[in-house]
Amino acid sequence: MKSAQIRQTFLDFFKEKQHEVVSSAPMVIKNDPTLMFTNAGMNQFKDLFLGNSEIKYARIADSQKCLRVSGKHNDLEEVGVDTYHHTMFEMLGNWSFGNYFKKEAIEWAWELLVDVYKIDKDRLYFTVFEGDEQDGTEMDEDAYNLWKAILEKNNLPLYKILKANKKDNFWEMGDTGPCGPCSEIHVDLRNDDEIAKIPGRELVNADHPQVVEIWNLVFMEFNRMANGELKSLPAKHVDTGMGFERLAMVLQGKQSNYDTDVFMPTIDKISQLTGVKYQNTLDVSVKTDVAIRVIADHVRAVTFSIADGQLPSNTGAGYVIRRILRRAIRYGYSFLDQKEPFINELVSVLAKQMGEAFPELLAQQELITKVIREEEDSFLRTLEKGIHRFENYLATANDKTVDGEFAFELYDTFGFPIDLTELMATENNFDVDMPGFIVALDKQKERSRAAGKIEADDWVVLREDDVEEFIGYDYTEADTYLTKYRRI
Ligand code: ATP
Ligand code: MG
Ligand code: MG
Ligand code: MG
Prior knowledge:
Blueprint: H1 3-16, E1 20-21, H2 46-49, E2 59-67, E3 69-70, E4 73-74, E5 88-97, H3 102-116, E6 124-129, H4 141-153, E7 161-164, H5 166-169, E8 170-172, E9 177-188, H6 192-196, E10 211-224, E11 230-243, H7 244-251, H8 264-274, H9 287-307, H10 316-335, H11 347-354, H12 359-396, E12 401-402, H13 404-414, H14 418-427, E13 431-432, H15 434-457, E14 468-477, E15 480-487
Parallel strand pairs: 1-2, 6-7, 12-13
Antiparallel strand pairs: 2-5, 3-4, 5-11, 6-9, 8-9, 9-10, 10-11, 14-15
The chain binds adenosine-5'-triphosphate and magnesium ion (3 copies).
């Protein structure tokens, strides 16, 4: 099944069950001070769960563009190293707002996965919340019994239901507000021989790279009060999220999300542009493969963000996007030997492949390509020198720590986001002195504040012999950039 059909099948399934199918909310959030990017399908329905806005549809389904690169959910470092965490991914979801509850959510999940998508039921595992003494919550017997009934009907062993703790199986919106237990569905993708070797198979769900969580069903039944106490909610809700790329991996019989048709066109194009073959190994010491996966992932995050109106910049959400893009550029530079821009050429592949589901990609294709190209151009200008400086530094370092001042120099002079410096340090078994970096950063802020004061009073003319330092581009209008220079 092609990925477009997988998405459509999900939406059609829930439409048939009287769900209103809605569009994805933007991935970049403009009006919520607590969240920069959508990181789960439920974000756009927050006000409905909180009772702050009127419920128009009691049942909703959609595919939501998500980005997990900051805050509570930060999967950036997993990307490319494992094969199923992305920065940007789609979360397929169905919701009930005070309408159906656990029974329907669980039975429909089974029906969709087993009867419709035809996933081998032997490979499915289910977690239920085990309860928490401190909260006074009991094990989720309802969810357990619902799965049990399904397993018994299908002659499957009960060890497929695993009890899980609060950390993984109790969802909370924040310190207060709606919350409740969840039930996750995992798929075991190991080959039969390997599975046969596991005693009892109960431990099958342990952290194994090929036992992958695909769907999370959240049952909001409590309201956490300011004193920590849980009160039963008058209207109970269902919030589910299934990783679209992971589902595609399962349905297309692959071992990695990158082997699905969601990523392969981009990967093929990267190989074609760079002349580096994707060897399709999960061995992380094969740096070219990691680099190709990282770039295939990051270009999606950046492309979708720009399509949503968030351009790379030096602050806030824009800087997050710039960081991701610079990370991709540097992977291309260091491991695929790319000294010239090429990532921008991947945008057309994405637009072609995803444009039907996300028309904003087609509409913005030209702008996105241009913006990425300019970012590549500008960063590649300083990257080589920065890497050179970095290598010299490592060669002469007394210990295994990159000191904060030097990390700041890379940041300030060569445009290296601090997480890039950390990544490069880690690759060389070095640490970064983060407190030292912060001190240097604060000092710079102080300096610019002081400089700002003078500039407000006096007209400062930059003389030709003044040392200027490039600190990046700032987006000003639809398609112009203002190059900013700062005196040092
Ligand atoms: P994991 O434990 O694998 O990190 P999670 O428990 O953090 O996943 P949820 O918050 O429950 O994920 O999100 C719902 C679903 O979204 C998951 O079951 C998974 O299929 C998918 N998902 C979560 N994070 C990612 C990601 N970084 N990339 C791709 N899919 C993801
Ligand atoms: Mg996670
Ligand atoms: Mg999880
Ligand atoms: Mg989960």
